[in-house]
TrEMBL record:
One family name in Pfam for this protein: 4HBT
Coiled-coil residue spans: none
Family, similarity comment: Belongs to the THEM4/THEM5 thioesterase family.
Protein name, entry field: Acyl-coenzyme A thioesterase THEM4
Bilayer disposition of the protein: Peripheral membrane protein
EC number, UniProt record: 3.1.2.2
Length: 254
């Protein structure tokens, strides 16, 4: 049977008892904590580097959260030291060979790729989740360090924010998942430093497979920049010797 740490990690992802504390207990009733974080700030809240489009869209979606149909997803740069330990256990459970490379110390220094840039230079984004519609909308303002062809975003940067958005959609539905496939059609180059909307939709779940699609559009909806489809796989507990039933039925206190 797997250790307590991995059970907690599962709880953190699934929001079950024993995982991250409920958002309400932290006074954040309209916000869903995607994982517990105490060391740094929530990067999905307004900052001086946000342009007027980003702020206006943030305000519009925050308004939509008032009736509970939409939830703003918090986002942090690092996970807490405690969670780092939990994730070490998680990695060991699912990918034993990887745990020889990624030790606890390295994990404690890790940063979420999309949050590792100086404010305003890289990925500025905030995501909003609509459970009933199985949608996540990401408001994204890309900074000057994401340039590819001069004056436009690098396609890899676009792929990254797409993966983050469809990935979050898969996580909120499937728990512990990994991207198995991501197909992207680049229709029109995205001007550097612009703000765009990424609209993602969970299309279907078949067993362990989650199919999520998305469109990247200008904020007025007139330009379709990019379209993508993706496949996420829920990790197979038995295959990786992870006792999911135990983790769900006997969650640990936070
Ligand atoms: C709390 C912390 C929160 C963190 C928040 C921040 C996160 C931000 C979010 C960022 C998000 C970033 C996210 C990232 O960046 S994730 C990082 C990028 N992804 C990876 O590194 C994944 C690498 N791949 C794997 O580990 C395995 O292949 C996985 C786990 C995916 C499946 O291996 P597993 O051994 O488990 O499964 P299986 O092989 O038995 O296959 C099962 C079924 O699936 C079908 N299949 C499999 N692959 C493909 C494929 N390519 N196309 C079509 N179908 C495929 C397969 O045919 C079979 O179907 P069927 O025969 O049953 O019908």
């Amino acid at each position: 049977m797997l250790g307590r740490g991995a059970a907690r990690a599962l709880g953190a992802l699934r929001g079950v008892r024993g995982g991250a504390p409920p958002a309400r207990s932290l006074g954040l009733s309209r916000r869903l904590l995607s994982f517990e974080k105490v060391l740094d700030k929530d990067h999905s809240l307004p900052k001086p580097c946000w342009g007027k489009d980003m702020r206006r869209l943030f305000d519009q979606f925050t308004k939509k959260c008032e009736d509970g149909s939409w939830i703003q997803l918090a986002s942090y740069e690092q996970i807490s030291a405690q969670r780092s330990q939990d994730f070490s256990a998680f990695i060991h459970a699912y990918f034993p060979s990887a745990s020889e490379v990624i030790n606890k110390e390295k994990l404690s220094q890790a940063q979420l790729f999309t949050r590792g840039f100086e404010d305003g230079m890289g990925f500025e984004y905030v995501m909003f989740y609509n459970k009933a519609e199985k949608r996540i909308v990401c408001v994204f303002q890309g900074g000057p360090h994401l340039q590819g062809m001069p004056g436009f975003f690098h396609g890899g940067a676009t792929a990254t924010i797409i993966d983050a958005t469809v990935g979050m959609n898969a996580i909120v539905s499937g728990g512990i998942v990994m991207t198995a496939n991501l197909n992207i059609n680049f229709k029109s180059p995205i001007p550097l430093c612009s703000t765009v909307l990424i609209n993602s939709q969970l299309d279907k779940i078949e067993g362990r497979k989650l199919f999520v699609s998305c469109k990247v559009q200008s904020i007025d909806g007139k330009i379709l920049y990019t379209e993508a489809t993706s496949l996420f796989i829920m990790l197979e507990p038995k295959k990786k010797k992870y006792d999911l039933k135990e983790a769900v039925l006997n969650p640990l206190p936070a």
